[in-house]
Amino acid sequence: MVERDGCDRKLSKKSRRSFPCSSSIIIACLQSVFLIFLITPGCAQLVVNVKEKGGDVYKEAINANTTAETVTLEFKRSDGTFITQFIDFKNEIQIFKALVLGEEERGQNQFQVMCYITRFIKNEFISADAMSKLRQKNPGALRTPEDDKGQEKHQKDLLVDVERAEAITPHTSDICGDAKDTTYARDADLKYIAKSLNKDYAKMLTATSRPTGSVYHSPRCTLVQDLFKSCVCRYELCIGWYPCGLKYCRGKDNSGKVISYRCGIKTCKKCRMFEYYVKAKQMCLWDEEEKPVQML
Ligand SMILES: *[C@@H]1O[C@H](CO)[C@@H](O)[C@H](O)[C@H]1NC(C)=O
């Protein structure tokens, strides 16, 4: 029988909607762990148990909206950090959001939210349509990715005004409404997208501003002692498991002709190191040099 796990589980306010689940689903390929169905079911959420190398397990929820052509992947790490990856396929944009719990004893807010707006490269993630058709045979299984794509460095040289960023993606204020002064982007990404989609680069740029210091030339936060001094902050964000491509199976149709059809997914892990200028080291307290271990 087809499992419909995930439809009832909620990880965030955004996914707290009820999805009508279709029961008349046809299985396309039985050998595969992940199945792509021929009929689009109404229920479009997948919940996956991801196991990290260190042994930590977390639940990842992936929602696809085929009308808007968007995918939202979210999970909460064991340290309390809440991560969102949002992909807007039409606008070739993806947004990475991190909600990091603060250290109150060091005068920080209870939490900090950062949004990193990044160019979406085609075929980095399966389409919203393929995502909406994905189900797993064994929802309780612990998943590890087949392919580790390593780490990518992203230097962000723009601040984004989330209320005015419709030209970049109309979803910016939904996703980054709680990161008003901490949403970052890269000039080169906007230029690239403007070319690729024939959009108005100048219009996209009006929703951004240059920070007062340079991400390329300011000192790293690890080298700054004073919590009120500016520096370049680093934040590493890893997506431990995601569908990065489709697998094809061969079979025969009714007339005996050999056909190839989508029957499963390739899975990947990818990390991104975001670098950006902050006005005060206070905004970047996680980014510290490793302290030498004290020997007993
Ligand atoms: C999907 O996107 C459409 C168009 O943006 C929106 O109207 C609809 O509410 C979305 N559906 C869900 C389940 O979020």
UniProtKB/TrEMBL annotation:
<dbReference type="Pfam" id="PF14941">
    <property type="entry name" value="OAF_N"/>
</dbReference>
<dbReference type="InterPro" id="IPR026315">
    <property type="entry name" value="Oaf"/>
</dbReference>
<feature type="transmembrane region" description="Helical">
    <location>
        <begin position="21"/>
        <end position="39"/>
    </location>
</feature>
<keyword id="KW-0472">Membrane</keyword>
<protein>
    <submittedName>
        <fullName>Out at first protein</fullName>
    </submittedName>
</protein>
<feature type="domain" description="Out at first protein BRICHOS-like">
    <location>
        <begin position="45"/>
        <end position="192"/>
    </location>
</feature>
<comment type="similarity">
    <text>Belongs to the OAF family.</text>
</comment>
<dbReference type="InterPro" id="IPR053897">
    <property type="entry name" value="Oaf_C"/>
</dbReference>
<dbReference type="InterPro" id="IPR053894">
    <property type="entry name" value="OAF_N"/>
</dbReference>
<dbReference type="Pfam" id="PF22873">
    <property type="entry name" value="OAF_C"/>
</dbReference>
<keyword id="KW-1133">Transmembrane helix</keyword>
<feature type="domain" description="Out at first C-terminal">
    <location>
        <begin position="220"/>
        <end position="288"/>
    </location>
</feature>
<keyword id="KW-0812">Transmembrane</keyword>
